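Hi support team,

I'm filing this because I wasn't sure whether my run with flavin-adenine dinucleotide finished correctly. The job status page said complete, but I'd like someone to confirm that the output block is well-formed before I use it downstream. Pasting the exact inputs I used:
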Amino acid sequence: MPERMLKFVSVPQHAPDKRAVTERAVDFDEIYEDFSIKAAELQASRCSQCGVPFCSIHCPLHNNIPDWLKLTAEGRLEEAYEVSSATNNFPEICGRICPQDRLCEGNCVIEKGFNSVTIGAVERFVTDTAFDKGWVKPRKPKRERAQSVGIIGAGPGGLAAAEQLRALGYQVHVYDRYDRVGGLLIYGIPGFKLEKDIVLRRWKLLEEAGIVFHMGVEIGRDISFADLREKHTTILIATGVYKSRDLGGPGAGLAGIIPALDFLTAANRTGLGDTVAAFASGELNAAGKKVVVIGGGDTAMDCVRTAVRQGATSVKCLYRRDKANMPGSMREVKNAEEEGVEFIWLSAPEAFRGDKAVTAVRTVKMRLGMQDATGRQSVEPVPGSHFDIDADIVIKALGFDPEDLPKLWGESALRVSRWGTMKVDHHTFETELPGVYAAGDIVRGASLVVWAIRDGRDAAAAMHKAMSVGATAVAAE
Ligand code: FAD
Ligand code: SF4
Ligand code: SF4
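And here is everything the job wrote out:
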């Protein structure tokens, strides 16, 4: 074992510094500072080079973490980048936005007693350095293949599959209804977690590799799904999940009660320089307003922190369970608390007050009850515990469901689960329609970027296998 490693006893964990709250809460730049080379090498040297690396086992991409940590500690950054990018199409993105506390770092063996290796921050540092030094190149194929692939959706799932298939020589066409690539990376996740030029530089590389993007094209509206199938040898559906779960109760239809993704998309588009009428009119802008966000997941955290940055007068987050039972990453909850967000735990909306527009949320206190079949405690209202919270804007961040694709696309042979997610063979990612595959949130339900990348890579491998067999059969005829 090189002397350089196993330093976790003598070197304390040190994550990249966060910018001061007063500075970061007024802009949309990322909140973490960059590691210096020295800091990255030192932090990487804390790894104990486990024979059975639980960090890798719990990374959805099974990244070869101990190897690239060792190479980083030795200052061999170009090799570290080669190893890290061999299993991950977008390591700089995962390094920024994976919930590492639940994945690689949460399972690092030194976590108990010494605090984990800062895996995500090192991964980000290695790839950012690779971009700075010009080591990141478009993955052009060595030989071209005639078969073409149509990918619906330019989110992380679709993009990872596109890059893998293009590197193998396929003619890859990506279709997206948006005008920019990235899916939720560009219009959902705010810049303070993932700056937009990080996503846009990937778009450029993918184009340079020869992937053809058809932006502003919605399948089912601009091109029918049946016509798309005619154009391509195989199809990948990577459309994500976008149907916002709604709120009920008296007053739920009042003006000022808005879906989270409308709010976040308007903020992201404005940050990218687009003119958004509903932002300019104030409808989707929290400036000078009392904001109540309903929900406890990562989308809710992104909404509260966006509202703070837009200059809301107060930002409150209403969640029906307690802090320990929140689905959102604790790191993001802490960031939100530091930035001045008030959490109102164990509270749920019952009704919305107001004449035309919302003015207050009628709220009831909740208490935790018995565990359900999944082990999660149920919640029930506490009788007579009502109170009002003033609000000019209420943001609904209750999660997302899939759209009804078979109906939208007039393709009843596409089968969906009882949750509306696309039914696929879990080994091949193929749907019930031959030659049509699906990956990412549309298969899993709302999940994570790293899982979408994993699915995109696995689906691409299965598509390649099927098309190779097809090609051999044609050649042999
Ligand atoms: P998407 O990213 O949703 O991309 C789907 C694409 O398909 C979109 O570009 C869409 O325009 C396009 N599309 C849909 N229908 C059509 C059609 N008919 N024709 C053409 N194009 C179509 N995950 C993390 O790991 N970390 C985070 O911090 C995090 N934060 C999040 C914050 C928010 C606000 C949200 C909503 C999600 C967050 N997630 C996070 C989850 C993560 O963004 C998703 O799991 C991931 O983006 C799913 O990737 P995907 O490729 O399956 O779909
Ligand atoms: Fe950790 Fe995500 Fe990177 Fe895997 S991809 S090593 S889970 S940060
Ligand atoms: Fe290193 Fe932690 Fe992974 Fe072990 S679990 S190899 S200490 S990063």
